[in-house]
């Protein structure tokens, strides 16, 4: 067997193609699933690849616009302990939960809030070359946080010199939720180095809904009502924010240079600045004493992040390549909340400094014609300074918590025969605040014919508790309070020994292509031991939420993909995901996990320069609380897009999202209604 064949397709099976349209899989190379570049047909885990062409086709402004249209991925709102969480979502893959999804930018972690609730709106779509989404545990390569899957946003590479500019404007049918986007990318080469520069500004006005409220004044220590407080019992209505008034500025650059013919050095610098504000219903202190609950508050964020990294790639010979990367991601969050109805102290409780320092080395060795070894080591330190983890709920002083990870991993991609391949891998993680973990992964693929393949995959995963789950002290969360498992405060009178989650996943898939029709069906089963979830105790003023382990969670699922090209002008793609989730201890379904979700895309090329796309997104019913007493309605959204190429340089695009103005329930984040947009794109 030739080395080139192994390098491009040694391992498992043909997997999911592009999310929105039929793509020749033989031309798609991926890196996230094995940390080696290979044809997607040689990967043992389920993968979705979204290309820049598909991103441009749907006229996406940010990562959020892309992810919300991908099947088997769903958004979970109101996850982190702040009233503004109603307008921000985290991503869950295959029902595992928001904390189990690892988001990477060019393979690097980003420092930010826990559960990454903002990242979907922070990353401009214009810088993305492609997105690789690996579904299922990837802990053997990425450690903790990848128990549900990995989303790797890969930015545009330095290839031929080019410049791109994108201008976009949108608003809903009532003139609200206006958004102005400006994006540019410049890639070039000179006698000294290669470079890439990008910038993006996204300016948004808010989308709000009128909501009634009744205030109550309580003693923050005892929870008893203070009837004499002038704010007690006040009724009113307020425009509550579901999409923030926000300005997000992103800037980045990369320089590359071959120091020798075999040694490539790279330097990256990324910066983003974010200002956002909104009005929410929450709790605020009264200057004369007492806590006013369910009152309008103004929340303002002034956030910044700086990412710096350097990397080296050394090709020792044709069989051996090694990579070394150092990076630091520093995030500065400054949040202030103030009451709207009365004069009260400013709450700065949810400000923080977050730093991730990482050193990683990966070596790939072509041992022989049948084996590719990948082995690596990683050291990561995560530091969080925040008053939200200060055990004194009345203090805004920062408390520092630090977690370190030391890891080694090994992977072997094996060509058994010309039609049978396998991948096996193992990883050891030493974690400063949890027990050490060892995880395994194994996958095989059997190619029956050129167009038909069967694959099977087994993977183990784990996730250590994050700092918020352990230490947060929040007197304001949903209809109560939230405390970390280690915290003893107020109605929470004992600590809880929170264990890491551990998972085992099995999946099997059959894929086939016949003429213009391609299909894949995937069945998967996941067992999660000690799954970390929020549980509630008490009622009224004594109600609080805390993180505890669920003894056993079982997830069974089925994914179906059908693609058909009618002719060179018209093609369709259909995806269906079915999830059956259960907390085996309570015999309850998991929250914010729709049983059925589906996507249908119709692409029609009117002429060589004019293309249209129509999509239907269906999200089924889902429970919003662990008692399974509240359930949302299902809904279907219909989107229409249009792209017209004026000449080789310029193109214009536009579209309407949610054509029929379908409403979405508040627990699911609401939407802005029918949304119209137009844009102009230049490529030089």
TrEMBL record:
Which InterPro entries does the UniProt record give? Beta-barrel_TonB (IPR000531), Beta-barrel_TonB_sf (IPR036942), Plug_dom (IPR012910), Plug_dom_sf (IPR037066), TonB-dep_rcpt-like (IPR039426)
Intracellular or extracellular location(s): Cell outer membrane
Q: Which residues form the TonB-dependent receptor-like beta-barrel domain?
A: 244-659
Coiled-coil-forming residues are none
Q: Which GO terms describe its cellular component?
A: cell outer membrane
This protein's record includes keyword Acetylation:
no
Q: Transport among the record's keywords?
A: yes
One Gene Ontology term of the molecular function aspect = siderophore uptake transmembrane transporter activity
Recorded topology in the membrane: Multi-pass membrane protein
Any Gene Ontology biological process:
siderophore transmembrane transport
Q: Which residues form the TonB-dependent receptor plug domain?
A: 42-150
| Family annotation (Pfam families) | Plug (PF07715), TonB_dep_Rec_b-barrel (PF00593)
- Residues that span the membrane, as ranges: none
What's the superkingdom here?
Bacteria
Q: What is this protein called?
A: TonB-dependent receptor
Organism whose genome encodes this protein: Malaciobacter mytili LMG 24559
Q: What is the lineage of its organism?
A: Bacteria, Pseudomonadati, Campylobacterota, Epsilonproteobacteria, Campylobacterales
């Amino acid at each position: 067997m030739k080395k080139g064949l192994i390098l491009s397709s040694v391992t498992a099976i043909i997997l999911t193609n592009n999310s929105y349209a039929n793509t020749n899989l033989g031309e798609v190379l991926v890196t996230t699933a094995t940390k080696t570049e290979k044809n997607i047909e040689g990967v043992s885990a389920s993968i979705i690849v979204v290309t820049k062409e598909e991103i441009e086709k749907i006229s996406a402004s940010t990562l959020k616009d892309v992810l919300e249209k991908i099947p088997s991925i769903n958004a979970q709102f109101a996850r982190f302990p702040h009233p503004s969480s109603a307008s921000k979502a985290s991503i869950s893959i295959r029902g595992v939960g928001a904390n189990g999804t690892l988001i990477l930018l060019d393979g690097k972690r980003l420092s930010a809030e826990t559960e990454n609730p903002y990242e979907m709106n922070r990353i401009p779509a214009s810088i993305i070359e492609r997105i690789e989404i690996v579904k299922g545990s990837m802990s053997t390569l990425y450690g903790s946080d990848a128990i549900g899957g990995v989303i790797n946003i890969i930015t545009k590479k330095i290839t031929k010199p080019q410049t791109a500019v994108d201008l976009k404007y949108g608003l809903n049918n009532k003139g609200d939720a206006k958004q102005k986007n400006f994006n540019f990318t410049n890639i070039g080469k000179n006698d000294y180095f290669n470079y890439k520069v990008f910038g993006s500004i996204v300016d948004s006005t808010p989308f709000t809904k009128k909501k009634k409220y009744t205030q109550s004044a309580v003693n923050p220590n005892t929870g008893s009502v203070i009837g004499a407080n002038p704010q007690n019992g006040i009724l009113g209505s307020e425009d509550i924010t579901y999409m923030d008034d926000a300005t997000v500025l992103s800037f980045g650059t990369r320089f590359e240079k071959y120091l020798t013919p075999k040694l490539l050095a790279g330097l990256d610098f990324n910066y983003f600045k974010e200002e956002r504000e909104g009005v929410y219903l929450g709790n605020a202190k009264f200057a004369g004493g007492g806590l006013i609950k369910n009152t309008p508050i103004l929340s303002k964020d002034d956030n910044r992040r700086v990412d710096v990294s350097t990397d080296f790639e050394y090709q020792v010979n044709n069989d051996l390549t090694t990579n070394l990367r150092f990076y630091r991601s520093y995030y500065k969050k400054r949040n202030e909340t103030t009451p709207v109805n009365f004069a009260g102290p400013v709450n700065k409780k949810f400000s923080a400094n977050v730093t991730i320092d990482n050193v990683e080395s990966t070596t790939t060795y072509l041992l022989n014609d049948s084996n590719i070894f990948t082995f690596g080591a990683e050291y990561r330190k995560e530091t969080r300074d925040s008053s939200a983890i200060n055990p004194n709920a009345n203090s805004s002083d920062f408390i520092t918590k630090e977690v370190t990870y030391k890891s080694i991993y090994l992977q072997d991609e094996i060509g058994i025969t010309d039609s049978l391949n396998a991948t096996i891998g193992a990883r050891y993680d030493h974690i400063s605040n949890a027990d050490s973990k060892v995880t395994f992964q194994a996958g095989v693929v059997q190619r029956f014919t050129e167009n038909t393949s069967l694959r099977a995959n087994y993977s183990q995963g784990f996730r250590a508790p994050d700092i918020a789950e352990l230490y947060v002290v929040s007197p304001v969360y949903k209809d109560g309070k939230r405390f970390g498992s280690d915290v003893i405060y107020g109605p929470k009178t004992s600590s809880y020994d929170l264990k890491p989650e551990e998972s085992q996943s099995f999946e099997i898939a059959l894929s086939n292509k016949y003429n213009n029709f391609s299909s894949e069906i995937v069945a998967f089963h996941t067992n999660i031991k000690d799954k970390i979830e929020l549980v509630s105790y008490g009622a009224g003023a004594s109600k609080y939420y805390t993180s505890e382990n669920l003894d056993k969670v079982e997830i069974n699922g089925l994914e179906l993909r059908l693609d058909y090209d009618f002719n060179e002008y018209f093609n369709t793609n259909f995806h269906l995901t079915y999830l059956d989730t259960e907390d085996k201890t309570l015999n309850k379904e998991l929250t914010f996990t729709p049983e059925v979700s589906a996507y249908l895309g119709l692409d029609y090329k009117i002429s060589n320069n004019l293309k249209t796309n129509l999509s239907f997104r269906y999200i089924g019913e889902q429970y919003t609380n662990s008692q399974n007493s509240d359930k949302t309605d299902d809904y279907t959204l219909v989107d229409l897009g249009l792209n017209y190429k004026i000449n080789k340089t310029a193109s214009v695009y536009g579209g309407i999202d949610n054509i029929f103005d379908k409403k979405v329930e508040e627990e699911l984040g609401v939407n802005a209604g029918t949304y119209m947009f137009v844009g102009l794109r230049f490529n030089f």
